[in-house]
Amino acid sequence: MATTDNNLSFLGRGWSFPPTFSKTTREVALVADEEDIKESLEILLSTTIGERFLQPEYGCNLDNYVFEPMNATIETSIKIAVKNAILLYEPRLRLISVKLDTTFLTEGRADIIVEYDIITTNSRFNLVYPFYLNEANNKTA
Questions:
Q1: Can you give the CATH number for the domain in which 29 is found?
Q2: Measured by CB atoms within 10 angstroms of the end CB, which terminus of the chain is less buried, N or C?
Q3: Listed residue (55, 111, 116) closest to 86, CA to CA
């Protein structure tokens, strides 16, 4: 992995997600610090358990809820799945809360809102992860 910056971040450094490459230098675009943690969370939430060959337990299995009708049981199950995945696989942060915003439920989307502190900097952040309850949504005018 090529880098142009020799300073190593204490919060982590990794490839951007999705991976992109510089047209001029042909190097992989890298992210560090808070952005690396944010992208790590997005990858974790979008990965199905068993999808990663060398880490078969990694992931969140949100796909199990795609066609489920949203009710209190499903909402609680989604929150628990997200909390467990973050607690197991993201040691750089302290989880504050996981909420589900169902404002756009009629459009087939619920937003998963993750609030967290980065432990080493004691900085608070949140991630809004759009979770689509339907595989596709064809709207007609």
A1: 3.10.450.40
A2: C
A3: 116
